[in-house]
Amino acid sequence: MIDNNLISANTLELCTGARSSYVSYNGEQESVIDHIILPMDKMDTILSCEIADDNALNVSNHRPVVCRVHFPCVASPKVYETFHHINWKLVKQEHIQQYEYNMNHDPAIQICTVYGCGKCKLKLHSQYVK
Question: Is the pTM for the entire model greater than 0.85?
């Protein structure tokens, strides 16, 4: 991973919980084979990491790995000024083409889609509902 500038979040010191992500059914073997991998230059975005050790509903020999990561939304609100509400009962092919173009080519929308910015998704979604 280091050769590719990647890091496993659940092998860092900040990771809490169990030390292994895999436990054999008979409990004799343990290892860390499940990973959340990020680029090394994004390591400072990790808010928390945990290998959950709750056996209450364990139906697998793999423990859940939970990682909270912060990626700020950098989209400008001006992006949404060009969108218009669409009445889907009256939709025309040109509306569909414009929607597809916006989703596939607008850099701000792409950033929000990749990083999961909730505010951007809600604004975008509201433009195409009704």
Answer: no
Distance, CA of 108 to CA of 73 (rounded, Å)? 9
Q: What residues does each domain of the chain span? A: 2-69, 77-127
Distance CA 65, CA 72 (A): 22
Query: Look-up: residue for tokens 């030390």?
Result: 19
- φ and ψ at 3, to 5 degrees? -60, -25
Q: What is the pLDDT of residues 60-83, one digit of tens each?
A: 888 889 999 887 766 555 554 555
Nearest to 82 by CA among 105, 52, 60: 105
Residues 30-42 as b or e (16 or more Cβ within 10 Å = b): eebeebbebeeee
Angle at Cα 21 formed by Cα 16 and Cα 23, nearest 5°? 130
Q: Is the pLDDT score of 84 beyond 50?
A: yes
Which conformational region is residue 17 in: left (phi greater than 0), alpha (psi within -120 to 50 degrees), or beta?
left
Half-sphere exposure of 60 (CA within 13 A, CB side): 9
Identify the three-state secondary structure at position 98. Answer: helix
